Structures are given as C-alpha cells and as structure tokens.
Automatic annotation (TrEMBL):
<dbReference type="Pfam" id="PF12636">
    <property type="entry name" value="DUF3781"/>
</dbReference>
<protein>
    <recommendedName>
        <fullName>DUF3781 domain-containing protein</fullName>
    </recommendedName>
</protein>
<dbReference type="InterPro" id="IPR024229">
    <property type="entry name" value="DUF3781"/>
</dbReference>
Length: 87
C-alpha cells in the first residue's frame, strides 16, 4: 500500500458527496469535501492506513474520521465518524 499513490489517484462519484455530508451531518460543497479529505489523508500516518479485502480504511483520530477507499479504483466510498470509547 502506497499512501502517495492513493493521494495521486483519489476520486469521487457524484453520489458520494451527499453521502459524506449526511454521515458528517454537514453541508460542504464538492470542493470543500475534496480539500478536507485530501488534507486528512495527507496528514494521516501511513500506519493508520489499513487494507482489508478490496478497501483501504484510513483512520484519523485527530479529526475523528474514518475514510473508506476502494483499493482498485481509489474512489472514496464513504466517510464515518470514529466511535469514541469512554474510559
């Protein structure tokens, strides 16, 4: 898995923007979503990139976000908030 390759090839479908806004309870524009996710992926340590099956899962605790990316097409599938565990 190569983080640079993901950053260079990341892409989106028309439907994913609405899905991301719904999951994040936000109303970002397409450009804002792309800018935000690129910045999060760029700052996330490569050790927090996991390949499971056909997807990459990128967890960024600082932004409380998990990004799911198709490992063949580099297409963003969805974004989820990380579940915070109580100590």
């Amino acid at each position: 898995m190569d983080k640079t390759e993901i950053l260079n090839n990341i892409c989106y479908t028309k439907l994913v923007y609405d899905r991301i806004n719904k999951k994040l309870k936000s109303n970002y524009s397409k450009t804002e979503i792309e800018t935000l996710l690129f910045a999060i992926l760029k700052e996330t340590h490569e050790q927090d990139f996991q390949k499971i099956g056909k997807n990459f899962y990128v967890s960024n605790v600082r932004n409380n976000i998990k990004i799911t990316i198709n490992s063949n097409t580099y297409r963003i599938i969805t974004v989820d908030r990380l579940i915070k565990t109580k100590k």
